[in-house]
Amino acid sequence: MFLAVTDEAKELTISSSRKGIHGTSRPATRVTPSLPEEPCASWVIADRVGNNSHPMNVIVCVKQIPDPAAPGALDAGTNTLKRDGKLVIDDSDMYGVEMALQLVDAAGGGEVNLVSMAPNSETSGMRTALAMGASKGVLVSDPALQGSDALTTAKILAAAVQKLGGADLIIAATESSDGYTGTVPEQMAEVLGLPSVTFAKKVAVDNGTLKVNRQTESGYDEVTCPMPAVISVTAGVVEPRYPSFKGIMAAKNKPIDEVKASDLGVTPVGWEGAGQKISGVAQAEARQAGEIIEDDGEAFGKIVGFLENLKVI
Amino acid sequence: MALNNIWVFAQAANGAPTSATLELLTKARSLSSNVTAFMGGDGNAIAVALGEYGATKVYAADHGSNLPGVAIAAAMKSVIDSGDKPDLIMFPQNYEGRDTMSRLSVKLNKTVITNNIDIADSGDGVTTVTPIFGGNTLVSTTFTGEGPFLAAFRPKSFAPEASGGGAAAVTAVQVPDLGATGGAKVLAVHVEETTGPKLDEADVVVSGGRGLGESDKFTMVEELAKILKGAPGASRAIVDAGWVPYSYQVGQTGKVVKPSVYIAAGISGATQHMVGMKGSKNIIAINKDKEAPIFGIADLGIVGDVHKVLPKLIEALKSR
Questions:
Q1: Which among A258, A259, A63, A25 has a CA at the least distance from the CA of A172?
Q2: Domains plus CATH for chain A?
Q3: Are residues B102 and A183, on separate chains, in Cβ contact within 8 Å?
Q4: Residue A257 has pLDDT above 90, yes or no
Q5: Do A292 and B295 lie within an 8 Å CB cutoff?
Q6: How far is B278 from chain A (nearest CA, A)?
Q7: What is the pLDDT at residue A292?
Q8: Residue B83 lies in a domain
Q9: Among the listed ranges A153-157, B137-141, B179-183, which one has the minimum average pLDDT value?
Q10: Domain CATH number, residue B99
Q11: Which ipTM was obtained for this model?
Q12: CA-closest candidate to residue A177, choices A15, A62, A17, A86
């Protein structure tokens, strides 16, 4: 241990349940030392103990999804979600990217790297995260992956994490905005043999240990967790920065390593590896719209009458 | 394949099984006569209630200060390895349900199908039904290969009904050594104080959205909810903005509500929100934009400014 040990915890304590999030914007310049040559996990454990100033490497899982503003559609042939159009970064992942950048900043160094699985060599969503400040990424793009279930996705992403040499912390969103299975982060943790804390709404690092407020049905739990670990963060955990023009330009030249499932040694994948098949698609019974009126100043009376009819009042 | 042995991931709150637990037990019972509840903590306190809804057996794994998911999944795996192998495990679509099924899916190398609202066993296969695109399309997915099949269900997918069964027999299960995966420990539990009926149990829900304009205006929503003896709710937009805590959120990533009356004030009706409330018996929507999707499912739609309509409504109800 050659760096000074400090008792003062560099904490990031940004609550998601308060109005007005202040002080989260940080200088755009960051020191980004290169990764060590050896596998990261052992390096982290060996060198981290008792030192808060150690560089921290974070990997963020970034999903690239169809534009949520466009109506979703199923591919008529496969009954899978159509993902052949323009893809964008899932908004839910912006929080993870921002959280990672802030944690690395607070640690005084390290890198934020990305893993993603997407069809057609899609990188536009990853470029957004690179423009925010991430350093590089691994993209798994492979026609063989079509039809993959969440478990296969978790295996692929876990392998991509290992290809990057592991990290102190792996961050994902709680669920994607298009498929929302919501199991991949915890499945990744199990594949990697790591502890995990899902639904983190506040995250801090103190002396190499994660301090997380984890959302529960009735409030939240204070959870402590050693690193390396996997966490999933809720929307609103931090305020994502907008990529600067400089960041956008720099992102164009940041490396994205594209690989196939076979390069990662994950088999079987796609429909073959999925323990499920789509057996039918039907339209749900649509709810009919009722009476719609323009408020002329007296519309509240309509509501009162409606509630009276229902004997609510 | 026949579903001879079904497990339900059971949870307790305030000394009683949660409503999600009772819903799943009721459905499990219709698929098999052999239903086991698998839970964290001490099973004895709720064995009678679990039996009443169809469980004949309870496995209880004390997870201590571990997060429940990783510990209960390991306990489930050890019971399966010792010879009691379920054909299907039903989970509630909530925090602990998701964590547990995720961990277990890797241990068993089995797929998970989440967000379901129904399940059927045709004899040829076990098929779940999942709503997508805000619920306007229903996808049927059939498990392939051998069980255990792992499926999670959205709250209120099934109506809980007691079967009149006797107390379930409780077996304590040891949580195996979790190694590195057990690193996360719960230090403290915080319960957010709420008054009035619970959001997902209230007969009337009044929810506010971005149309309220600013966080202070949420008091109108709270006041109206109070007058109607209901619970206040919120769209994801204003939860993300930090106006109200997450526990108020109605929608895909929040609570699913099915009250008699749902009043949406200043909510446009994003898919994310609609899936959490479209099962309400009666929907009243107030929104400035007459093109707002919420009007497509409202029984009574008021195209108007919530800042004008709500105060008058509150005043009228107060003076009754």
A1: A63
A2: 40-278 (3.40.50.620)
A3: yes
A4: yes
A5: yes
A6: 8
A7: 94
A8: yes
A9: B137-141
A10: 3.40.50.620
A11: 0.85
A12: A62
